[in-house]
Structure formats: C-alpha cells, structure tokens
Amino acid sequence: MERDNYTLLTTGPVRKVILTLSGPAIVSMLATSIHSLVSTFYVGRISTQATAAVGVSFALMSVIQAIGFLFGQGSGNFLSRALGAKKKDEAYRMASTGFFGAVACSLLLALLGLIFITPLARLLGSTPTILPETRRYLLWVLLGMPVMTGTMALNNQLRFQGSAQFAMYGVLAGAFVNIALSPVYIFVLGLGVTGAGMGVFSGQLVSLLVMLWGTGRAGNIPVKLRLCTPNKFYINEILAGGTPSLTRQGLASISVALLNIAAGAYGDAAIAGMSIVGRVTFLIMAAVIGLGHGYQPLCGFSYGAGLYDRVKQGFWFVVKLGFAFLAVCSVFGIVFAEPLVRMFRDDMQVVEVGASALRWQMATLPLGSFIMYTNMMMQTIRRPLQANLLAASRNGVFFIPLILLLPHWFGLLGVEMCQTWADVLSFILAVVIAVQGFRGLKK
Questions:
Q1: Cβ count within 10 A of residue 106
Q2: What is the pTM of this model?
C-alpha cells in the first residue's frame, strides 16, 4: 500500500490523483459540516436563544479545531514529505507524537474550561439571556474536547498518507450517529440544548474509534504510545507545519467571538442570524476544503521527491476548479438567501439579518479558492512565515480591525459586510505570497 501510494502521488496524472484523493476528503468535510448544521437545525426548533447559544459556542469549536489542526496538519505535512523522501522511521514516530500531543494538550485546556465555564461563556459573546443555554451546551463540548482533537489529528494524518477513505469512514460514522441521536436526546428525552451537545459528543467518539481502527489497516501508520517522541526535532516540525492552521483556526475563534459581541448589540436575533450564515458558508466551503485536502498529499509527496512542476500544476488545477464551484454557489446563495436562512430559524428578524449577511458573504466567496489553496501550498512545502501570515489575514489581520470599526460607521450593516472586505484584502495578500512562492520553487 505504501509503495502504491508513493507511485500514485509522484507519477500519476495530477488531475486524476487530486480528484481520486479529494473524493473521500470532500465527503469527510461535508459530513463534518453537517455535524455543525445538525445542532443548528435541531436547536432552531427550540428557540432563538438556543440557536444563539449554539452559535456562540461555535467560537470554542474553532479553538478545538485549531488544536486538532495544529497537531494533525503539523504531523501530517511532515508525514507526506517523509514518506515522499522514504524516511519511514521518522514518519512512524511523528504519527504517534502528533496524536498523543493533541490529546494531552486538549485535556489540559478542557479541564480549565470546565473550571471557568461561566466566564468562558461570557468571553465567547454570550448575553445574559442566553447564558444558561450556552453553559449547558459548552459542558458537552468541553467534555468531548480531547476526543475531537484526537479525531482531527488522525483525520489529517490518514489524508496525508494518501488514505483519505479511512478518514472518511470515521467522519461518516460519527455524522450518522450525531444525526440519529441528536433528535432523540433533544426531543424524545426532552434534554434541549444539552441533548444537542450530547449528540455532538457521541458522534465524535464514534469517529475517533473508527479512525483508530483505520490506522492499523492497509499499510497505514498506527499510533503507539511507545513511539511518541516529543523531542525538539518533532515539536519544531509540528509547529512549522501546524502553526498556520493554529493561526487560522485560533483567529477564527476570536473573530467569531468578536462577531457575536458586535451582533449582540442588536439583540439575540442578530447573533442567531450571523451564526446561521457562518454554518451555511462553512457547508459550502467544506467541498472546497476537501478538494484542497486532495491536493495536499500530492503537494507534499511531490515536494519531498523534488518534483516541483507537479506542485504548481496541482495548485492551478484546484484553484480553477474551486473558483468555478464557488462562483455557482455564490449566485445560488444571493438569489435564495431568505429561504436558506429561514430553513434554520423561521423568525422574521433572524431571516432579515441572516439574508443580508449571506448576500454580502456570497459576493466575495469565489476569492476563497485562491486564498485557501495558496495557504495550503505554503503550509505543505514548509513556508511557515508566508503560511502563517496568510492564515492570519482573513480572520485576524484584516477582520479584527474591520469588526471593531465598521459597526461604528455603518451599524448592523457593518457587522454583516465585515467578512466580505476582509476577503478582498486577503485575496490581494494571497496573490503577493503566491508569486513569491513560485519564484522560490524555481530557485
């Protein structure tokens, strides 16, 4: 299996390889986004406050993703380059170091979160009216934090080995459990928002167990505690390959919290509307992220083997395909903004805020293809400075000043269009970084 993956990723037709690997990755990303949408959809049947509480908690989910991607992308990027250079022993040690590092780090943070759960809820943007609901949902998110980060670490490692199908099995199993059990917890047992949190926890636990099973199949690298090697070399490699993901997801958490605080000035309906837009946008971007996940193993193996033309050829293929897909979704989202928001919460105020914000978001959505794939390429070919700068741009360098300034100038409209202008500025930065990256490959 290892030999076949090496041959496929370094000699197979670029388009065919990317499409072959991205199929399972796209399914995995869509299933992951469904995890988020399920909670939003079901709690929307409870109340506007419940919808807002889940939306506020999404900022913590971004923190969990940040940790999972730090260790998963950091170890996974190294795995693809090491396997491309045929350094098998280093790959085995990195896999275990990345997985157990993610679990240990999240255990510590989860404990702190449980101790300070009420201040945490307020920090994430919870208003007094939704604080009780937020606390109930956050409890299960924090309990499941080590499980979720471990799942994300394994997901990334399996993908970077060229075995995205095993990651897909785990994500699909978890999504199925979440979809099946959440309505039972919420409505049949009458647990409300607590049931929504329990559904997410149950799904993530099943995902982790299935992925652990997958690491021991078909030549994949298993994770073993005795192989965990947290020395300077492996930690530096995890940080070099994973900090762009940590930056991106960590700032996403901050941006969501600031967005909730800004929207909260206009009531719970505004928070609910903006949270729905975030989930819808994430569902659309899931397919584009999955396509990029199909490109990353080819990029890593090819770079490790010194095949730089394949790196560039794959980059332009995913950029063009991703742009075309997002352009179609953009038109659809602008035309059907109201029905899309109403599907989650049939409240006039929520729909009014959500539809306006969704149209603004859709206007620049196609630019996300170039921004995302430039970031992925820089991260995989070990350009941590450029990757971190671009990762910080969309949700940090540009977004944070805009979310602090635009609402003062334009009121609620400023909240709704903030992400749009952040995307425009991030695209300009991505062009500069991509040009420099290609020049570096030529050298």
A1: 26
A2: 0.69
